[in-house]
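User: quick one - fold this with fe (ii) ion bound?
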Amino acid sequence: MRFPVSEPLADGSARCLVVDADPGVREALTCLLEAQGFSCDSASSGLEALRHLSRDRDLPLVVSDLKVPDLDGFRLLAELHDRSPDAAVILMSDAADAPTAVECMRQGASDFLVKPISLHELEARVTSALEKRALILRNRFYQQHLESRLQTQGNRIKELFLQGVQLLARALEAKDAYTRGHSIRVSHYAVATARAIGLEDGALDDIRLGGELHDIGKIGTREAVLHKPGRLTEAEQGQIREHVTLGEQMLSPLAHESPTVLRCVRSHHERMDGRGFPDGLAGNRIPIEARIIAVADAFDAMTTLRPYRAPLAPEAALGELRRVSGSQLDADVVLAFGDVFPQLQALVPA
Ligand SMILES: [Fe+2]
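Assistant: Sure. Structure tokens for the protein plus fe (ii) ion:
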């Protein structure tokens, strides 16, 4: 049998499955498609076609009669898509079955041809179906590639921002000798306490960062106030208090991705009795992360040298935490801190 010769559609590596009960039709289609550069397999029934597809899930093209032994057209199409979801499927039908073939197109067939088939028409439909398939695959690739690049860039921007604010935290410690190492210790104490309470993974990461950055707003506090050895005036206390809101503003780019970190910064000076700042929140209205940072912060403040007093011994500081448990600090968090206290003592500065 001779076929019209035109430019091949495929390069010899493209595979195709021809499904038809009539051996003459299978042979004719196979010859045409091989002349177009396809490497063809053929099947005489639906079940035989499915066995082929199970072995070759990336098959690009299937040309199948609508009525093949074992499976009707809808079932065959569903099974084809299930096994080889990216295959372009061209169905062939008798004129009487054309409405069924149209319905098959609604359900995902690429095209259909009415028998008897013009070989030129088949060639044109194959071209069109493969172009459509290539477009779908290309769009999907670009979409996935773009999403992946956006994700990578977003992560990089967040990483750079965090590196920047962590540098600021180090700069704050360089500015204020009395808080040197404070943020890192608070972070360690808070994470250990949070773990004892039962928080895990992402929540622990946020608390780790929240601990490191909780006092970042003090970078905006005047050194004369920050280092003042004597009692602070009302106005100076006000300036110190501003560090929580200033810190929250500085970290606002994290608002969407790490809101917990912002809550740690804003609310770590709230008190259980509602007498803290900046919002006067009480009890459980204070975010749990901030209640944890508050305990860690209080412990570190008591166990390190301050301009106005000598450090307390760790056991004495733990006793003080217990004394203000329930009024200033969350009682459950203080209990959890007490549980991990033996492993934290080594971190207390000598
Ligand atoms: Fe603070």
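One thing worth noting: The two ends are 96 Å apart (CA to CA).
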